[in-house]
Amino acid sequence: MNMGKTVLGENSSIMIIDDFETITDLLSEILSYMGFETIAYNNGFDAVERYRRDWKEIGFVILDVNMPGISGKEVFKRLKIINPDIDVIFFSGCCSKDEIKILLEMGAKGFIEKPFNFDTLSNQIIDVVRVRRQSNMKKTSPPILSSSSVPVRSLM
Fold first, then answer.
1. What ranges do the domains of the chain cover?
2. What is the pLDDT of residue 127?
C-alpha cells in the first residue's frame, strides 16, 4: 500500500507529535507502510521549530492533545501562526467532548481517540485529504469545519 505520494502529492511528509516515543515509533511504522514519510517529535517545542523551517514539505500533522511542557492545543496555535491552513488531526486517550469541540472549532481537521487501529487512522487521513482536495478545487481557502462535519472516530 502506497498512499503517501498519491494522496498528499509533494507534501507527503506527516509530522507526528507525541510525548511517548513508543507512540511516535508505532505511528511512523504504520504511516511508512502506507507510503508516507514521517517526521516524529516527542516534544512540542522542537516540533514547532522544525515546522517553522520545513512547513512547505509537511502535508499535515498528527498531534497528541496532552503532553508535558507544552500542550497539543498550544502547539497547534503556534503551528497555525506559521501556516494558517495547516491540517492537524488530534489524538488522545483522555479528552472530553467539550475539549474536542474546541479543537475542531480552532481548525483541527479531526480527532481520533486512543487506542485506534490502522483503518481508523487511514480513514481519517483520507477524510482530511478529501476535504483539502475539494477546497483546492474550489480555489478558495479551506473551509472551516465544525464538529458536526468532521467525524470523530473511537475504538475501544
1. 9-138
2. 87
- Say how many C-beta atoms besides its own lie within 10 A of residue 155's C-beta: 11
Work out the average pLDDT over 54-73: 95
- What pLDDT is recorded for position 8? 54
Q: Which CATH architecture has domain 9-138?
A: 3-Layer(aba) Sandwich (3.40)
SS3 assignment for the chain: CCCHHHHHCCCCEEEEECCCHHHHHHHHHHHHHCCCEEEEECCHHHHHHHHHHHHHHEEEEEEECCCCCCCHHHHHHHHHHHCCCCCEEEEECCCCHHHHHHHHHCCCCEEEECCCCHHHHHHHHHHHHHHHHHHHHHCCCCCCCCCCCCCEEECC
Parallel, antiparallel or unpaired: strands 152-154 and 110-113: parallel
Q: What is the pLDDT of residues 21-42, one digit of tens each?
A: 999 999 999 888 888 899 999 9
Prediction pTM value: 0.80
Residue type, 46: D
**Alpha carbons 128 and 106: distance in angstroms, whole number:** 15
Q: How far apart are CA 147 and CA 64, in angstroms?
A: 18
